[in-house]
Design goal:
- The chain is about 35% helix and about 25% strand.
- By secondary structure, the chain is of the alpha+beta class.
- The strands form six sheets. Strands 2, 3, 4, 5 and 8 form a five-stranded mixed sheet that branches. A five-stranded antiparallel sheet has the order 10-9-19-18-17, with helices on both faces.
- Strand 17 and strand 18 form a beta hairpin.
- Helix 3 crosses helix 4 and helix 11 crosses helix 13.
- The radius of gyration is 31 Å and the shape is elongated.
- The chain starts with a helix and ends with a helix.
- About 0% of the residues have low confidence.
């Protein structure tokens, strides 16, 4: 009796600690990941529970049976076990499929099942924007990556308790007074999931129609900078990642930059109007030829024209005419291209945004000024192009685009005069009514578009058989305005122009958007 009293009083704390080491293990797990919702509260990324299998290598009752089972069913886990025999916890397989769960019903009793949080994506057509998480629920792409610190929240410690026979395990949260509770509020995006679905559906149809390699569509509110839709093709299914091709995970609207061609003539014209080096009434001699020599440089265009006004040069997309306008601007053209946002990141809350490139005056060849005037020696993202058109729609004020809802007031500065903006809007309207964007006309709505057909640079050579087709513009009725950019790359049919590819896509997207937003 005295010996028992001595053990309990003198060795009690030591023996209690020793016992806890045998049946209790502390692990750290992340809190439930915050949800992602669209502007209307539609769930874009949420949580569900997945089952995972694990073992306790230091407490295996039948190690031979476990090794035999793993060697047949889970060879990768079998290899890991040989290096983990000293560990108190090892995953066999995480995020088990239904078939694997059924198989494990007949597994050795040393293999246990645990529930873990798993990410669920009910809107797969937003995969390139929302992104995905890894097996540990850490964001690795898209919004999941850029907002990971918030979404992941505060980590929580748990005690794993086992019974005396190591057959049953229990998880018990540890009280942590020093930790701030994890935020549970979802992240809300400016996207409209329903509109995104409609846009994605139309983009896929157009890519299939022209057997194209790639395509994208952007819709932007020019007054607020809200991105309402950001669709890309090809894309991927975030619920089925086995054998995933990483090239399909790109968000092409920001992760790629392109020489977009004639759509850039709009900003040469805007610069010329702002600098007052030309009037709308003046006629430029376009030399009535497909080829012209200006300052010793050969300029090519698709159709021959004689005397044209600035509006007609944009309407008919004449390279010879816009090159002569650029001559009057010289290096000032570079300044204006920077002013509307080209050559620098927009600051969008997404990873991997490209800054684009404008060839600076100190590196110009004799050709550079002319090339810049009609969209070469300048590469831009589609988001930069949308931002630049939003400046026109927003009366010369540039509003940085964003994809997270915000109540922070946006500083505004009018970069172009009312007169210059009104004149370029008139030119864009005429281009839609009478020029290359005529397929975008819609009765009852004011549509202002410009097209661009660019040759792609392959191994240092511009290929006439590899093109990108762009249409950027503004859909308006009264105070309602939306900027839309459509882009298709490498259609299999030769000899096409943006007027035949990107403009019909613009028109169909605009129709669906206007019906969806009930602008009648």
């Amino acid at each position: 009796m005295g010996n028992l009293f001595y053990i309990q009083t003198h060795n009690g704390p030591f023996l209690q600690q020793l016992g806890q080491q045998q049946y209790k293990k502390t692990i750290t797990r992340s809190a439930e990941r915050a949800c992602i919702i669209d502007r209307n509260g539609t769930l874009l990324a949420g949580n569900c529970m997945a089952l995972s299998a694990y073992i306790v290598p230091t407490a295996l009752k039948d190690p031979d049976a476990v090794q035999e089972f793993l060697s047949i069913m889970y060879p990768a886990a079998y290899e890991r076990l040989n290096n983990s025999l000293h560990k108190k916890f090892m995953y066999v397989q995480r995020n088990l499929s239904k078939e694997q769960i059924a198989e494990l019903a007949h597994a050795p009793r040393d293999i246990h099942i645990i529930k873990e949080p798993h990410r669920h994506y009910p809107c797969p057509f937003l995969a390139s924007v929302i992104g995905i998480t890894d097996i540990d629920n850490h964001g690795i792409m898209g919004i999941e990556y850029s907002c990971d610190a918030y979404l992941r929240g505060t980590k929580q410690k748990y005690h794993i308790l086992k019974d005396a026979h190591a057959e049953h395990f229990f998880c018990q949260p540890v009280q942590q007074d020093d930790l701030v509770p994890s935020a549970t509020e979802p992240i809300q995006l400016t996207l409209d999931a329903h509109l995104q679905y409609l846009v994605d559906e139309q983009l896929r149809a157009t890519v299939a129609q022209f057997d194209a390699r790639q395509g994208s569509v952007l819709i932007l509110d020019p007054h607020t900078g809200d991105i309402l839709a950001m669709a890309n093709y090809p894309t991927f299914d975030p619920e089925h990642l086995q054998g995933l091709d990483l090239n399909r995970t790109k968000n092409y609207t920001i992760n790629e930059q392109y020489e977009l061609g004639s759509v850039m003539k709009v900003f040469t014209a805007l610069a010329a109007l702002q600098e007052q080096v030309i009037t709308l009434e003046e006629r430029i001699d376009c030399m009535n030829d497909l080829h012209a020599c200006i300052d010793g440089r050969r300029i090519n265009t698709t159709h021959a024209h004689g005397l044209l006004t600035l509006s007609q040069i944009i309407e008919k997309s004449n390279n010879i005419g816009i090159a002569q306008v650029a001559k009057r601007l010289q290096a000032t053209l570079y300044t204006h291209l920077q002013r509307v946002g080209f050559g620098k990141k927009t600051g969008i809350e997404l990873p991997g945004e490209q800054s684009g490139f404008i060839n600076p005056p100190e590196r110009w060849s004799k050709q550079s000024l002319f090339s810049l005037s009609y969209g070469y020696e300048i590469s831009a993202t589609l988001l930069q192009l949308a931002q630049a058109f939003a400046l026109i729609a927003n009366n010369g004020i540039i509003v940085p685009p964003h994809i997270r809802t915000t109540t922070v007031p946006i500083a505004s500065e009018q970069l172009y005069s009312d007169e210059a903006i009104a004149q370029i809007e008139e030119i864009l309207e005429r281009t839609t009514l009478h020029g290359t964007a005529y397929r975008a006309r819609m009765r009852g709505y004011n549509i202002k578009c410009k097209t661009g057909t660019g040759n792609l640079l392959v191994d240092g050579v511009y290929r006439e058989d590899k093109n990108c087709f762009t249409c950027a513009g503004i859909a308006q009725k009264d105070n309602y305005k939306r900027v839309i950019v459509t882009y298709i790359q490498e259609a299999s049919t030769p000899g096409l122009f943006a007027a035949q590819v990107a403009v019909p896509l613009f028109e169909k997207v605009a129709q669906k958007m206007l019906i969806h937003e009930r602008v009648i």
